[in-house]
Every structure is written in C-alpha cells, then in structure tokens.
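Note to self: keep these together.
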Amino acid sequence: MQLGYTILYVEDVKRSVLFYQAAFGLKVKFLHDAGDFGELDTGTTSLAFSSRQLMAALNKKPSVPNPQAPCFEIAFTTDDVASALARALECGATLVQPPEQMPWGQTVAYVADLDGFLVELCTPMGGVE
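Structure:
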C-alpha cells in the first residue's frame, strides 16, 4: 500500500491551487477546466483539491475546517522555517503559531491556509533550524 494523494475540500479549487503554488512552491499537476478538481505535485504523492460544491453533488457533506480545533493538518518540511513562514504569510496564510523549537529537535510553525486548513512548516525530523 502507498499513499497516493490527499484531497482537501475547498470553496474555490483554482484559488487554493494558486495559493499553494505561490505560498509553498508546489507545481500544478492537474487543474480541471470546470474548476472542481486540481492536484499539486508533492513528490511521490499529490495534494489534491475538490470543490465542496462537487462533493455536495456527490451526496457528501464535507465540513469547513477550523484551524483552532483541527482534526487534520498538512506538513511541509524545510530547512528554513522562518523564510517559509514569511512566504506563506505574504501569500495570504494566517499565522497560527510562530516558529518554536520542539523537544525532539524540530523547528515547527503553523499557519492556516485560505480555507482554514492547518499547515505545519517544520524542519525535517532530527534537523534543527
């Protein structure tokens, strides 16, 4: 078994794809002309987006994320958390937690994306900023 992709249910797929492209430097893998589905290349997996409208048409009822009470997060590793955080904030992310050195050696910061999904920016495990 291998993780293929993660799908976030968002209000505006194109807006989310463009945000993740600008804020985190991900490359667009696919964006459907109708605007209801898109994917970003994250290496061996994809980060995908589907519109809440499409999910409703498929009889699914996705909830809206709450970064203050998250049940899910995305994590991006980087050697420079402070710079990654600054870039994300310049692109419209909302600060949830500034960079903090964790007891296990990682530097970790959190932002909320344009839809409210929690995004962790962290050094690789064992790495220190």
